[in-house]
């Protein structure tokens, strides 16, 4: 099989029409540190990529306080970053997001914008960007008197700044940055057509595709936007972005984009996970993808439609561990699963690099207890936030739940044992500064650090008000935030009370140290459990399928137990126990992965991934324990209709239109990918937790579960569909 392994090579894209390929740090939440960015530059060079766009939404002088000039201390760090990028052959794009409060017609405002970018140019920066995403598409009254439209206002300022800086490399992110936001559509959008006609042709325009987070990018859609913008777009790719969901991190390969797109694009910048250490696979596989079809040619005898293939989590029917990689693969071809294997091979050594951690990653939303009663609470998409602080809220009224009934599940699924209403409330905004330390991000309530700006000119009066309180990150010991290594959970049936679930623990300290090393197989499982926004990995799909089959056919075991041990064992019963064993093996593999991850020397990586694995491991252990319980014939007959295979339970968000929940064609709508991924929060963990919640009601509530599920069905929270 051909190996697409990325090696330390000269930049390939300068040989391919100067194709831009790299990373945009453009998410909401805690920015990366200076040290992490310098590490990124090394990796980008090694993997043949060429660009980095500085645009962290909550680094306060990028967006909320865009008028503020940098202090001497900040300037030193930013200059060091730019110099490091240049040293590694990486183009450092410095971006500002002034759209929240800029008055486009104000000469003073435009002068402040120029002065800020001039300051950064003196640090050695030669490439810039203006971002007008995630803002209200309305002009002030003053702007309406000067400009014909919102697009004309942005074009005027962008062109003026571009010329003032001497026509450097320049990008613009429009307010209508995807097809879903184009009004009325891409072809007839006055805004996009104005950009295409009036914006300086040397300025590159960014585009996310059909959606904010696009499942697939097609050649046809790129050709359409290229015609409107009169230039090929730079893709701002959110396929691995996770700032909109507390429960998800994306470790799957770059997928859903055929290499046929490369000759039709100006470039691709991936906006990945908030957690820097979790982005190895995302960036590495993008690098592999970008090297395919580098000369705009391909072997027509090879069918590589798999390069653009992406499966929804319900599309795999054989229960396998993922699609097969072709036995022969041309060097110019791309296959996501092969790219993932290559990335894992190079990612594994990273876990054994001793590194300390300086603080927890701060995502923009609030953590909700793992055992949240259904319905799953929808959240505001942070990619669509119109404020400087991203919050989480609910548009639905939660039904009353007995907290005692949730306790057993909560203890297993999460370290959070009670649901605090304050967790659901918006949090006061904290602006962050990543440019005053190599390894720290300083969090201020609403204040920039004290210090004189590099320029003697006064800061514009339009800047937001400041306070004075700040706090710094401190090095974290293993006991600071990470919970103690939780015990392996197994479930047995106590002979004295056949309907009682007993949890027993396993002592990890008795395991030999040689068995604690993380393996390639561990990382393959990790990536499958946290794959992509629209797709579970192969082993994740297998987990769901095995449990669903076992749950649906549990009556076979109950009937066999009634017949007695003397009766011959039916083939179906034998199959049930064989598949229960497979589920047990998956649960053990997840426990082993969790244990191996706990002992890695790279504590920074551990802290990035640990919260996700904690939740995943807990819920899988619970489901496996439930299957063990069923294996002993403990089946709640009063709610048999919900577990005998007559119905399939499906999770829905209350925000999904009621008329589409049960009407003809709802399945096609769901499967089409028309919904953004934040509509169905939580990924595989949430899918499993919904099953756990339902099982908790079946086991603990008895008859009440029957009524509760009926109530949820009537509310449209779950679908009970005839099998």
Description:
- 35% of the residues lie in helices and 9% in strands.
- The protein is of the alpha/beta class.
- Among the domains are: 12-296 and 332-352, TIM Barrel (Alpha-Beta Barrel), CATH 3.20.20.80; 520-643 and 677-719, Up-down Bundle (Methane Monooxygenase Hydroxylase, Chain G, domain 1), CATH 1.20.58.
- The strands form four sheets. Strands 1-2-3-4-5-6-7-8 form an eight-stranded parallel β-barrel. Strands 9-10-11 form a three-stranded antiparallel β-sheet, with no helix packed on it.
- It is elongated, with a radius of gyration of 27 Å.
CATH fourth-tier homologous superfamily of the domain at 12-296 and 332-352: Glycosidases
Tell me the strand percentage band.
5-15%
Overall form: elongated
Kindly state the percentage of residues in helix: 25-40%
Question: What does the largest sheet look like?
Answer: 8 strands, parallel, barrel
User: What CATH architecture label of the domain at 12-296 and 332-352 applies?
Assistant: Alpha-Beta Barrel
For the largest sheet, list the strands in their spatial order: 1-2-3-4-5-6-7-8
User: What's the CATH first level of the domain at 12-296 and 332-352?
Assistant: Alpha Beta
What is the mean pLDDT?
73
Provide the structure class. alpha/beta
Low-confidence stretches: 1-16, 295-322, 364-429, 446-511, 638-667, 714-723
Total number of strands = 15
Q: What is Rg?
A: 27 Å
Question: What kind of oligomer do you see?
Answer: single chain
Total count of helical runs of at least 4 residues: 19
Q: Terminal Cα separation, in Å?
A: 41 Å
CATH topology of the domain at 12-296 and 332-352: TIM Barrel
């Amino acid at each position: 099989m051909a190996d697409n392994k990325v090696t330390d090579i000269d930049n390939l894209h300068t040989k391919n029409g100067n194709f831009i390929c790299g990373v945009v740090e453009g998410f909401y939440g805690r920015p990366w540190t200076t040290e992490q960015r310098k590490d990124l530059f090394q990796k980008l060079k090694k993997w043949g990529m060429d660009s980095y766009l500085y645009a962290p939404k909550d680094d306060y002088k990028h967006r909320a306080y865009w008028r503020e000039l940098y202090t001497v201390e900040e300037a030193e760090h930013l200059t060091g970053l730019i110099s490091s990028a240049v040293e590694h052959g990486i183009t450092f794009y410095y971006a500002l997001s002034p759209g929240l409060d800029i008055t486009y017609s104000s000469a003073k405002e435009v002068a402040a914008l120029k002065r800020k970018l001039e300051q950064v140019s003196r640090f050695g920066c030669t490439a810039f960007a203006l971002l007008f995403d995630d803002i209200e598409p309305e002009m002030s009254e003053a702007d309406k008197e000067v400009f014909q439209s919102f697009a004309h206002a942005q074009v005027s300022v962008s062109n003026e700044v571009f010329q003032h800086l001497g026509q450097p490399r320049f990008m613009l992110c429009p307010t209508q940055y995807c097809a879903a936001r184009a009004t009325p559509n891409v072809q007839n959008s006055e805004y996009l057509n104005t950009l295409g006609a009036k914006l300086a042709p040397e300025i590159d325009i960014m585009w996310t595709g059909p959606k904010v987070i696009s499942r697939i990018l097609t050649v046809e859609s790129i050709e359409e936007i290229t015609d409107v913008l009169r230039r090929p777009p730079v893709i701002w790719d959110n396929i691995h972005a996770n700032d909109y969901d507390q429960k998800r991190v994306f470790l799957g390969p770059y997928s859903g984009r055929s290499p046929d797109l490369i000759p039709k694009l100006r470039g691709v910048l991936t906006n990945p996970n908030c957690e820097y250490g979790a982005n190895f696979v995302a960036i590495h596989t993008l690098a592999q993808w970008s090297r395919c079809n580098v000369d705009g040619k391909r072997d027509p005898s090879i069918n590589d439609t798999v390069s653009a293939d992406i499966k929804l989590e319900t599309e795999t029917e054989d229960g396998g561990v993922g699609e097969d990689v072709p036995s022969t693969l041309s060097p110019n071809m791309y296959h996501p699963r092969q790219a993932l294997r290559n990335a894992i091979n190079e990612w594994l050594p990273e876990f054994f690099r001793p590194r300390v951690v300086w603080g927890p990653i701060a995502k923009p939303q609030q953590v909700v207890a793992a055992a949240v009663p259904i319905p799953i609470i929808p959240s505001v998409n942070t990619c669509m936030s119109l404020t400087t602080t991203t919050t989480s809220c609910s548009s639905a009224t939660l039904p009353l739940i007995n907290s005692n009934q949730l306790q057993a599940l909560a203890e297993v699924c999460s370290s959070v044992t009670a649901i605090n209403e304050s967790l659901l409330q918006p949090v006061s905004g904290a602006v962050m500064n990543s440019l005053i330390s190599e390894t720290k991000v300083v969090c201020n309530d609403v204040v920039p650090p004290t210090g004189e700006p590099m320029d003697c000119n006064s800061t514009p009066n339009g800047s937001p008000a400041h306070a004075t309180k700040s706090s710094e990150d401190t090095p974290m010991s293993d006991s600071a935030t990470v919970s103690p290594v939780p015990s392996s959970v197994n479930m047995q049936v106590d002979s004295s009370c056949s309907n009682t679930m007993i949890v027993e623990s396993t002592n990890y300290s008795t395991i030999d140290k040689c068995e604690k090393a993380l393996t390639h197989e561990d990382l393959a499982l990790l990536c499958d459990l946290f794959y992509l926004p629209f797709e579970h990995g192969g082993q994740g799909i297998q987990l769901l399928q095995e449990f669903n089959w076992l749950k649906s056919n549990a009556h076979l075991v109950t009937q066999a137990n009634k017949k007695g041990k003397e009766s011959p064992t039916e083939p179906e019963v034998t199959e049930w126990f064989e598949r229960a064993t497979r589920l047990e093996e998956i649960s053990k593999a997840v426990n082993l992965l969790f244990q191996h991850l706990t002992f890695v020397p790279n504590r920074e990586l551990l802290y990035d991934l640990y919260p996700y694995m904690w939740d995943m491991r807990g819920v899988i252990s619970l489901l496996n324990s439930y299957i063990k319980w069923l294996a002993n014939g403990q089946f709640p007959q009063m709610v048999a209709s919900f577990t005998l295979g007559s119905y399939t339970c499906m999770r829905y968000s209350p925000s999904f239109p009621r008329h589409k929940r049960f009407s003809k064609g709802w399945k096609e709508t769901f499967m089409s990918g028309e919904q953004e991924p934040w509509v169905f929060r939580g990924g595989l963990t949430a899918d499993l937790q919904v099953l756990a919640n339902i099982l908790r009601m079946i086991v603990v509530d008895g008859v009440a579960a029957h009524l509760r599920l009926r109530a949820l069905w009537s509310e449209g929270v779950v679908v009970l569909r005839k099998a």
